[in-house]
Each structure stands twice: as C-alpha cells, then as structure tokens.
Amino acid sequence: MTFLGWLTIFLFVVILTALAMPLGRYMGTVYAGERTLLDPLFLTPERLFYKIMRVNPHREQDWKAYAKSLIIFSVFGWLLLYFILRTQTLWNWTGLNPQGFHSAPWNVTFNTTSSFVTNTNWQYYGGETTMSYFSQMAGLTVQNFLSAGVGIAVAVALIRGIIGRSGKSIGNFWFDLIRTVLWVLTPIAFVVALILVFQGSIQNFSHYASFNGPTGLANQLAMGPVASQEAIKELGTNGGGFFNTNSAHPFENPTGFTNLLEMLSVLIIPAALVFMYGKMVGNRRQGYAIYATMMVMFLGAVCVAYIAEAHGSPAQHAAGLHTQVIAGSTGGNMEGKEQRFGIAGSALFDVVTTVTSCGAVNSAIESYTGIGGAVPMGNLSASEVIFGGVGTGLYSILLYVLLAVFIGGLMVGRTPEYLGKKIEAREIKLVAIGLLITPLAALFATALATASHLGRQSISAAATGPQGFSESLYAYLSQANNNGSAFAGYTGFIQPTAGSIGSHGITFANLLGGSTMLFARFAPILFALAVAGTLAGKKVSPAGLGTMRTDNATFVILLIGVIVLVGALTFFPALLLGPIVQGLTTHLY
Amino acid sequence: MALKRDIITSAIGILVLTLFLGILYPLVITGISQVAFPGNADGQKVYVNGKLVGSKIIGQNFALQVVKNGKPVVDKNGNPVTVPDPRYFQTRPSATVPHNNAAATTFSNLGPNNVATEQAIAANIKAYLALEKQYDAGLSSANVPVDAANTSASGIDPDISLANADIQAHRIAAVRHLPMSTVLHMVSQYTTGRGLGFSGEPGVDVLQLNLALDRTTGGQA
After folding, report:
1. Any idea what DSSP says for residue A577?
2. Which of A163, A460, B75, B118 has the fewest beta carbons under 10 Å from its own?
3. How many CB atoms lie within 10 A of CB B2?
4. What is the pLDDT of residues A466-487, one digit of tens each?
5. Do B114 and A467 count as a contact with CB atoms less than 8 A apart?
6. Residue A25 burial (CB < 10 Å; 0-12/13-18/19+)?
7. What pLDDT, in 10s, does the model give residues A364-374?
8. For residues A382, A514, A472 and A574, what is the CA-based torsion angle, rounded to 10 degrees?
9. Are A315 and B64 within 8 A, CB to CB?
10. For chains A and B, what is the number of CB pairs under 8 angstroms?
11. Is residue B110 within 8 Å of residue B117, measured between CB atoms?
12. B111: chain A residues, CB-CB within 8 Å
C-alpha cells in the first residue's frame, strides 16, 4: 500500500461527490419537465421523437401501463439485437465488418442479447474476435444507452409513486426514456468519448493493422470505433468491453487519467440519482442518508480490496516472489493487473464496477486474492444497492429502505410509514418478493451449474479446488445481478479462430445465464413498479412524534444492517466455500 | 388498443433510436476524433522507414523467431517458438497466444491459490533470471519486481515498472555497449507519470524506449 494509493481513493470520493450533487439537481429538473440549460439543443429532437413514435408524452400511465410499455419496448430491443448479431455478415455492405467475422452461434447470441438488453453485459465472446463494428455500434452500443435509460426510468417512476399525492399515475415511460437519452446520457457520453480519444482511445473504422515488430515478429492491431462505445459502457453502468480484456486494454483505457475518468463515469449517475431523489421528495436529507449508507459500504469494500491485493497472493509467495513495495514497484498481486493502473487503481476500479451493475474490469478478477475476490462477490451479494446500476441501484435500495422502515416500525411498535405514507402488508409483500428474486436466482442457478455435468464443463482447467466453485458462483451472481464482470476462466463459447467459423457455444451455460439475466432484471422491475403503483394512491399523513426519522444516522445504521443481514444470511455459506476459504489459507490447490 | 399502440411505438422507437444512438452518435464522434486527434483515433501507430512497427500504447514481444535447419520452429499449436532478443527491453509476461497478440487479448485467469499459478510465476521468474542475471550479479528471485513475473491484464501492457526497467538496463548497457547512465536517462525519457499526479502508477513505455535505443546505436548490438 502506498500513500498515493490511499490518496487516489480519497480524491476519487471527493470528486465524485462534488460532481454528482449538481448533476442530481439537474436531473431533477429534467424529469420534472422544468427548464434546463440544454433545452435549446434537445427540445426539437424530443418533439421529433414523440412525433415519429406516435407518443403523447403527457398521457399519464398507471404502473401497469408503464410496465407494459417498458416490457414491450424491451422485447423489441431484444429481437432487433438478436437479429443484428445473427445476421452479422448481411451487413458487410456497410463496410463495418472489415475482418469479415461471422455470427456467433445461436446459443451464445441468446446469452449476449439477453445480456445487453438487461444492462448486464456478461460476455462469453471476445469483442475483437467476434463482433463486427456494425454489431458493436448499431447493436451493442444502442442497448448500452437504452438498457440504462430503462433502469433510470424505473427509478424515476418509483420516486413519483413515493411522492405521488393521490391518484394512480407514476408518469409516462416514453417521456422518461427519451428525456434520459437526450438530456442525460448523450451529452455526457459525447464529452467522455472525446476526452478518451484525446487521451489515446481509438475511434476509426479501419482494417486491423498487420505489422512486424522491431525483431520481425508478426502481429496485428485490432481497430474500431472504441471510444464512443467505451463512454456509454461506463456511463450506463453496462460494462461490455469492445475488446476481450475490457478496460484493461490500452485502447479502451489508455492512461491513469482515463482510469479515473472511467470510474467517475460509472458512479456519477447512480450517485446523482440519490441526490435527485432528495430533491424530488422535497427533503435533501433523505438523499444524504441514502448516500451515506452507500458510501460507508463502498469505502469498506475498497479498503478491504486494496489491502488484500497489496498483500499479494499465496501463489506468488510460494513461487518466491516478494510482494512488498520497493523503489520503482508497488509490489502486491500484479497477476492480471496493468502497470499503469497499479494495485490501487485496479482495486478501486474493481469495487466501483461491482457495487454498480457495470461489470467493466481493468484487471482480471479471477486472479484476485481470496479476500480480494470475495469483495466483488460481497458487493454482488448486496444485490447492487451500493450505488448499483443506473436506476436499478436507486429503486433497489428504496425497496430496502421500505423494508428497514418496516423492521424499525416493528421494533418501536409503531405503524411503519415512509415520507408520510403508511407501509402496509401489501407493500411489504411486494418489497420482500422483489428483493428476494435476485439472490434466489443467483443461488438456484449456481446450484444447478455446480451440481450438473453440463454446468461443470464451463469451469476452466486451471481452476482447481475452491477456485472452480468460485468461478461458477461468480458467473451466476454476476448474471443474476445484471453486473457482467466475471471470473473469466468460466467459459460458454469455444472459438478456435477469430470470426466464429468452427466455433460452438456451451448451450447449458448460455441458456441458464441468459434466462437468469432476463428473469432477475424484469421481475424486480415489475415489483418495483407495483410498489410505486400502490404508494402513489396513498394519502400523506403529517409526521407526528412517533414517526421514525429516515434521514438521520440511526436510520443509516439500521439500513446498512438490513442490507448486510439479507446479503450475509443468503450468501455467506456460498462465499465461505469459494473465495473466503482461499483467503484464509496459504494452501495451494 | 393500448397494447397495439405500445407495439407500434416500440417498433418505430427501437429503429429510430438505433439510427440516432447506433449510427449517428458513433459517426459524429468518429468525425470529430479524426479531425481533432487523428493520431490517437488511429491508434498512435509508429512507423520506422515507412513501415508500421506497432502502436505506442500496445505492448509487443521483443523476441527472435527460433530457426532450425533454416525453418522457423513452431510449437504443437503452430505458434512461433521465440527467445527474448537481448538487445531490447522486454515487456511483461502475457497470456495471449502468441505472446502480446494485439488482435486477440486475454487474461491469464490464474487463481490466487492454484498450483498452476505458482508454476507459471516460477517459470516467469526463472526466465527473467536467465536473461538478466548474467548482467546483474546481485539479482535473485527475491528482487524480481512483481510486474516482471506476473502476466498483465490485457496481455499487451505497453509498460513495465521502473524497478523492472532498472534491472534490464544492465543488460541493455552491456549488449549495446552504452554507458549505464545513457540507458537510464533514456528510460526516464520514456517514463509516463501518474494521471493528474496521483492516479495510477508510473510506467516505462517499452516500444518507444526500444526504438529510441535503435536510433542511438543503429539497431546494432
């Protein structure tokens, strides 16, 4: 560990908070339909979109109508993406498939499509050996924007339910979606993409460039429109890399500065949404309480990961390597980490992308130490509420808030209420089921994959002992939480040469993963919208003496307790079998 | 009725949004990038005598093809068998096939508690010592820098640590008959700092350093 490593973590948190607060205020005005700075730029395109799509943005929707629009839109998104990916060579006339790559098989494409539509971006394929530029742009980039937009829309709808003053409406899905795309995602992605190119990311449509190095060895540089996709990949907490090694690839993440920029891009919207929430409910302290909850858990995770990775791994020590800091080297577990990021820049990136549903990686998580690897798994066990994905994080933690209010109410013997609205049996039932879907899906899929023959063929040969179990657990934790990061030795796609000819997918892993992602994305959305619907109709009663406050430190502690308890009780046994047992021993398997 | 309206809106919506976000947005970014930062947008390609030799920010394998009976030797998978070229600074170990393959990147995915990992690291230490120890007598496995023994994440890490470069400098100075101070000065010239002074770690860009060495000594040992 180094002073600069800790300083990086500290400054990151300061910069993030300083940027997220004004963005949250801005987003609040966007969804209220109030005037903003960017109106002159986007009001005309907005009207044009509504006109072409035949939408009346002022038509109020109840939760069922809202959900219906959302699901149908996602179905069409899924169908178009599947079509584009399966007909990759059909689009060669655009000139955007210079390597002439063929489509991946149906099962891999099913997984990939489900993955991008659910904001997961789990990848069994390697980008530079599978995808044409057309598939990356018109297929994957589009869903990077839209799946993020859908997530944010649900969060906005839930907030409207919470603040709704009688009535059933929770807003209009198309209004929320188009506003998110135009006012929030596009402008920030535009700026981030150009900064990335300025720093060294590539943005072109060229053939891969063959060359012979100074010693005569033949090699080839993969090319492509990387920066435009990289920007929204981080900003929309998507995480699907243009290249197989994701944000470790120098063309995706060229410098220490871009590493910082990408981490900020990942967390900026989830953090801003929390401040937006405080603004929209008319009590900023409610937002601060949730922000504090998230930040405490985030910092805990970062510290553990940094310390664990700086210590080094048992395999390094057994091989005779010394892992302490020396002049000119940070030491630590550098297996699967890039020199320009170092230990701190890798550990921080890892936590940033696993507390959110981003799942981008700038280092190989599978090579993290036992405890270092337990951190991202622990983050996933908390069901993406520590900032979480864009939108998904806020609506998920609000469900936890309602649960904490309910438990707190039981403890003090009062009718639980939140922001003046009574929390009754119906809401708690919806909340409880909504919160349990993701952990159950993760554990069920893991059990199926580890217990069956078909599941075990995905485990890599080098992953002996607990590592093999960790690979499987991580795969389904990640897909159920729509995260997308991986213990990447776990495989579902056998590809002997670039371009998918002669390749085949492992059907079991692709189908189980794909359906887990779809189920664990859309079922909680439905429950969150249903909660929004029932809350919208409730009368607001004024706060009395007996009202439990939800904007003070006591509540923050209660909320952290509830999140940790649910996550720990559900996942502790599984985590013990995999990463924790490795973290507690120096034994090699 | 509402269902039909949702279907029409969704079908049109996904198409126009694909045009806007999937075609227009990347094209505009490409257009601006190609005008404002053409070198970066195309990958910071480096040419020597008009021939492409790599990218400034992509690591490559500075090794020589092993030749036997006039034919290049390949392994059982058809990949070239190589030995490190002692005239050049060497990049970090790589899990790609062949090493530092910039068109098919991959992690090693070796676990922290696996025998396979220990063996791979031990082999990397051995190879490093075999190359460097004859020029730096005090070197032992205890002072091999971690980045020299662990594979990078991308498999094409362009950088090595300063500690790693300082050790290799002994070999470069000896093989190229250069004063140690000259080599170390060149190392510092191609050392990149931290982002904003704090983010990340300094690294030595191996390709640029090696090409500078070639310019100094004419590519000759």
Report:
1. I
2. B75
3. 12
4. 999 999 999 999 999 999 999 9
5. yes
6. middle
7. 999 999 999 99
8. 30
9. no
10. 432
11. yes
12. 315, 366-367, 462-463, 467, 470, 489, 582
When computed from its CA atoms, the radius of gyration of chain B, rounded to whole angstroms, is 23
DSSP A130-150: H--HHIIIIIIIHHHHHHHHH
Which residue of chain A is at minimal alpha-carbon distance from B25? Answer: A228
B154–A248 CB contact, under 8 Å? yes
Give chain B's mean pLDDT.
Answer: 95
Strand, coil or helix: A212? strand
Q: For residues A60 and A532, what is the distance between their CA atoms, to the nearest angstrom?
A: 14
The reply to whether residue B53 touches residue A212, judged by beta carbons under 8 angstroms, is yes
Task: Give the position of tokens 């990387």.
Answer: A226
**A322-368 pLDDT per residue, tens:** 999 999 999 999 999 999 999 999 999 999 999 999 999 999 999 99
What is the Cα Rg of chain A in Å?
23
SS3 content of chain B, % helix, strand, coil (to 5): 45, 15, 40
Separation of alpha carbons A22 and A14, rounded Å: 14
Q: Is the Cβ of B65 closer than 8 Å to some Cβ of chain A? A: yes
3-state secondary structure string across A32-85:
CCCCCCCHHHHHHHHHHHHHHHCCCCCCCCCHHHHHHHHHHHHHHHHHHHHHHH
Within 8 A by CB and 6+ apart from A576, the residues are: none
* A220 has a pLDDT exceeding 60: yes
Asked if B48 lies within 8 A of A466 by C-beta distance, the reply is no
ω before A524 within 30° of 0 (cis)? no
Q: How far is A157 from chain B (nearest CA, A)?
A: 18
Q: What is the DSSP letter of A405?
A: H
Residue of A nearest to B98 (CA): A219
Structure tokens at A433: 């089921």
CA distance A338 to A330: 12
Place of tokens 């308890």: A565
> Tokens 């987003």 correspond to what residue?
A27
Query: Which chain B residues in 144-203 lie under 8 Å from chain A, judged by CB atoms?
Result: 144-147, 149-166, 192, 194-196, 198-201, 203
Give me the phi and psi of B122, to 5 degrees please: -60, -40
- Whether pTM > 0.95 for this model: the answer is yes
Dump pLDDT digits (tens) for B84-93.
999 999 999 9
Nearest to B41 among A137, A204, A313 (CB): A204
Contact B149 A321 (CB under 8 A): yes
Smallest CA–CA distance, residue B201 to chain A, in Å, is 5
Say yes or no for a CB contact (<8 Å) between B61 and A54. Answer: no
Reported ipTM: 0.97
CA B73, B77, B83, B87 torsion: positive or negative?
positive
CA atoms within 13 A on the CB side of A179: 24
- With left for phi above 0 and alpha for psi between -120 and 50, is residue A119 left, alpha or beta? left
Nearest one of A213, A209, A212 to A221, comparing CA atoms: A209
Please judge whether A467 and B210 are an interchain contact, meaning their C-beta atoms are less than 8 angstroms apart.
Answer: no
